[in-house]
Specification:
two-stranded antiparallel sheet, nine-stranded mixed β-sheet, 250 residues, alpha/beta, globular, 24% strand
């Protein structure tokens, strides 16, 4: 049997004089070495994307983090800070891909920006500046720190004892996670069920409650040096197993 194919939608970034479709190595490595699947980087072509052709190949979809934010107009708000990075091409690619993948029952794992994308794609909203919301902690990283410091565990999340995440993590009540995001869930989309919350009440993980297949989204970054983190190893293994099961059932 061939290796399951996992779609990894790209970002659009300006590098020097030219724009590029990009996907960070750490996400690609997590699919290849953590889930033991074959990553296929998908260019952010928006409406020009042949979603049917892609989904016919796919045994899974992984949505990555990114410095860019989902455009606030996609959840009915005005941009609070237009200086923050955006990626309209990625928005136009991932949101329809998310809805189509869930409808087909294709396993889906979403990380950071991807976590926010799924919520918006299904009708939820976001806080655009968590640190300005009364009662919410500042979930941003310190950009003056080294990458190791930025991605180090910074707070605990409590897991829903009856949830999929707790099951994957062998019944753990909570785990330590890193935190590198300025935005977060305001209103959870219909059909999503919270899997983990931070101490300030912020939803940090959720599943699509009635999805046919594996669908988990996390606000933290399990891909960072995943092989050194037993919780991340279990998460990517579970995602890979779901992709293999989907492939076998085709």
């Amino acid at each position: 049997m061939r290796s399951p194919v996992v779609l990894v939608p790209a970002c659009v970034n300006q590098i020097g004089a030219h724009p590029y479709h990009t996907a960070q190595l750490k996400y690609v490595a997590a699919v290849a070495d953590g889930a033991h699947c074959t990553p296929l980087i998908v260019p952010a072509l928006g409406a020009a994307t042949d979603f049917e052709a892609l989904l016919a190949l796919a045994d899974g979809v992984m949505l990555t983090g990114s410095p860019s934010n989902v455009h606030a107009s996609l959840y009915g708000e005005e941009l609070l800070d237009p200086s923050l990075p955006l990626d309209a091409a990625r928005d136009a690619t991932t949101l329809p891909l998310i809805r189509a993948a869930i409808k087909r029952g294709i396993p889906l794992l979403a990380i950071c920006r991807g976590f926010q994308e799924v919520n918006v794609a299904l009708g939820g909203t976001l806080h655009q500046a968590l640190h300005n919301v009364p009662g919410m902690a500042d979930h941003r990283e310190n950009k003056d720190h080294t990458l190791d410091q930025q991605y180090a565990p910074s707070h605990r999340v409590l897991l829903d004892p009856g949830g999929r995440m707790a099951q994957i993590l062998d019944g753990a009540a909570g785990i330590q996670v890193n935190s590198l995001h300025g935005q977060g869930i305001k209103q959870l989309a219909p059909g999503l069920a919270a899997e983990a919350r931070a101490a300030d009440g912020l939803v940090e993980a959720y599943r699509v409650a009635d999805a046919k297949g594996f669908t988990l989204a996390v606000q933290w970054h399990p891909e960072w040096r995943f092989s050194e983190n037993p919780d991340s190893v279990k998460l990517f293994r579970a995602f890979g197993d779901a992709c293999r099961a989907y492939q076998a059932a085709r």
